[in-house]
UniProtKB/TrEMBL annotation:
It is found in: Cytoplasm. It holds the Pfam family FA_synthesis. The gene is plsX. This is Phosphate acyltransferase. The lineage of its organism: Bacteria, Bacillati, Bacillota, Bacilli, Bacillales. Pathway: Lipid metabolism; phospholipid metabolism. InterPro entries: FA_synthesis, Phospholipid_synth_PlsX-like.
Length: 336
């Protein structure tokens, strides 16, 4: 499996990106990884014995978090991110990973890798933790701020295929983010989307309220990018606040410190179950090949998991199955 990696994207690039690639390459000899970036900055982090299944494409140009996405893709054609996407377009890689500028990766995905025929809008789709430890896929979380009901239908189909093929969930339960769980709730978008999802070839189980996200009752939740991004950031902020409050409470006095010591292993388990590094990156569904956006602050472990996730998407032919499913739905609609 050939995967291209933007070695210069992310808050801790290239060190953590390279170290994550080394972990992945060492664990899985079937991987062929291409690190794209400044060779002089990459090589010091490859270790004393560089894995034979890692190669480097040298470039000193890269896209920053502050760059305007479309302009950066057009002007920085030799940037690590653009060259990473180019590897996929020209068939030298089966998929790619970047922890860099989300908007730029999305733009490169559309302009360089290309979109699946029949997909109107790609979706950015992270996997978030749930109380039962299984997690759920949320899409879209910001690839498209505005959406039509037909877009939400396609998001649901893509998310369902991913949950089944990559996450191993049989007949994944799909929910629609709404202001109430009852049928008929919501605005024009969610009402129209509810009708389409009810007739789609997926296990649609109805509306879901934000407070029920983390219960584990849904495997896939679909919404527009505006609401999805707010929901994602709210969950992240709440988790951060919760752990900060717990830390403050346990450090108040000697009694609470002793309690914290007694619960140390349990607290570590809780923190690990909500750690983004263990859930991989956010897949950009709807593109012509697997493209995964790793968290901007990814450490080596997060990159390793994102690479594994990307490999699974390619091996399970998620892109091909999405394309065939969308094609069949359009054929059925034409026949009707």
């Amino acid at each position: 499996m050939r995967i291209a990696i933007d070695a210069m994207g992310g808050d801790h690039a290239p060190e953590e990106i390279v170290k994550g690639a080394v972990l992945a390459a060492t664990e899985d000899a079937s991987l062929q990884l291409t690190l794209v970036g400044d060779q002089k900055k990459i090589e010091p982090h490859l270790g004393e014995v560089r894995p034979s299944n890692i190669q480097i494409i040298h470039t000193e140009e890269f896209i920053t978090a502050d760059d305007e996405p479309v302009r950066a893709i057009r002007r920085k054609k030799q940037s690590s991110l653009v060259l990473t996407a180019q590897e996929v377009k020209e068939g030298r890689a089966d998929a790619c990973v970047s922890a860099g500028n989300t908007g730029a990766l999305m733009t490169a995905g559309l302009m360089v890798v290309g979109r699946i025929k029949g997909i109107e809008r790609p979706a950015l789709s992270p996997t978030l933790p749930t109380m039962d430890g299984k997690g759920f896929v949320l899409l879209d979380v910001g690839a498209n701020i505005d959406a039509k009901a037909s877009h939400l239908l396609q998001y649901a189909i893509m998310g369902s295929i991913y949950a089944e093929k990559v996450r191993g969930i049989e007949n994944p339960r799909v929910g629609l983010l709404n202001v109430g769980a009852e049928n008929g709730k919501g605005n024009d978008l969610t009402k129209k989307a509810f009708e389409l999802l009810s007739q789609a070839p997926i296990n649609f189980v109805g509306n879901v309220e934000g407070r029920d996200f983390l219960t584990g009752d849904f495997d896939v939740v679909v919404t527009d990018g505006f609401s999805g991004n707010i929901a994602l950031k709210t969950i992240e902020g709440t988790a951060s606040m919760f752990f900060s409050m717990m830390k403050k409470a346990f450090l108040q006095n000697m009694k609470t410190k002793l309690a914290a010591g007694m619960m140390k292993s349990q607290l570590k388990e809780i923190k690990a179950s909500t750690e983004y590094a263990e859930y991989g990156g956010a897949a950009l569904f709807g593109l012509g090949a697997p493209v995964v956006k790793a968290h901007g602050s990814s450490n080596a472990r997060a990159i390793q998991v994102a690479i594994k996730q990307t490999k699974q998407m390619a091996e399970k032919n998620v892109t091909g199955i999405i394309e065939e499913t969308i094609k069949q739905i359009k054929t059925d609609e034409e026949e009707v």
